[in-house]
Amino acid sequence: MANILSQTIEQISKEKGIEPEVIQRALEDAMVAAAKKYFKTSEELQARYDPETGTIDVFAVKQIVENVTNPENEMSLEEALSIDESFQIGEFVEIPKPTVELGRIAAQTAKQVIFQKVREAEREIVFDEFSGQVGQLVNGIVRRFEGRDIILDMGKTEALLPANEQSRIEQYKQGDRVRAVIVKVHKLSKGPQIIVSRTDPSLLMRLFEMEIPEVYDGTVQIKTAVREGGERAKVAVASRDDAVDPVGACVGMKGTRINAVIRELKGEKIDIIEYSEDIVEFTMNALNPAKISKVLLVDPSSRLLEVIVPEDQLSLAIGKKGQNVRLASKLLGWQIDIKSEEEKKKEILSQMENLEPEQPEDALDQLPGVGEKTIARLHEAGIYSIQTLASKTVEELIEIPGIGEKTAQKLADQAQAFLSGEGAESEDAEGEETSEDAEQDKSGD
Known about the structure:
By secondary structure, the protein is of the alpha/beta class. It has helices spanning 2-16, 20-39, 77-83, 103-131, 201-211, 213-216, 246-251, 256-264, 279-286, 314-318, 323-332, 341-354, 372-380, 386-390, 394-398, 405-420, 429-444, and strands spanning 45-50, 55-65, 74-76, 92-97, 137-146, 149-153, 158-161, 177-188, 191-197, 220-228, 232-239, 269-274, 294-299, 304-309, 335-340. Helix 2 (20-39) packs antiparallel against helix 4 and helix 16 packs antiparallel against helix 17 (429-444).
């Protein structure tokens, strides 16, 4: 019997790829469940598998206490000492339960628990295996359809190819082989759910690794890739070896390498672009095949670019339904605003027309009756034009050394009159200023 149980554990372990300890714990749990059902007890039951004998022992566990309040889970020291004289208070005593009497109940319960534990272990193995493969290429066979979603047979488990992860130009039927990338692995109660995609950019990267040796060995690096599944893709590549042309390596002789990838993607157009750290150069490459006149960094903080193109290149740069500029924007990680040269010229002219021409400022010597000394003092105070003088109050002008109250008032009035076009009195402000200045100089001395 012992040999049969050990052999069974070993067989299940090999067939299911599950550690023997997991099956042993499942058997122990099964025996405990069967014992509780058979003995109808609230005792603390435990089970232990003995690999040497191949038997499973069931026993009740009781703690040794001074005063017993719960006989089913506690035992007095006196009773424990009758079993073994070495027992002490606080220790636990294992009281064996007859397993022979469990009979058919134990067998049925064990079968159910083992099946459940094995299934849980299998799910855990599948989850651990595939959760570490996100972004990796896998093969599956179309098993069935659930609405627009496709269920793929992956061998050990099934995978879900949702409608939104399917290429628009591809159609499948039952039994078709499908190559896809794992994008998510969910841990559900009924088992792991593996989500695969035919539109994710990582599929393109894995296919490049398969078809292009320089990408596989790391000589050519795929810096970034973007796709609109089934329609168009852009891939930015860079070389770690100056002697290797990254774009040429990906295209291959007469396009053999890239054509293999295009066939796998059922005719999806692929633009291979040379990567550059210079955002201007990278932008010009990303918008291929359109020819670019100028790239302007409008706002680096918000990553906004303005691209100027010749009139005949505008539709090519934008692409069908905006696809070319949209993919280029995703590739760069910058927002792109495309304008034709003519449109940009009109915009600049419009801006220039809206600008109000600055009025030239009038020099102070245009004020009648203001002498050189007064002008010199005003210059020292930072006043160089009649417009600036008119903006000052009499109090502010009085604070200028050498300018008295009367002179300040005259200057303020003359400046305002000049700007209003009313003219000004020709009274000699210099003479006024001179007498006041003399008085101020004396008081200063």
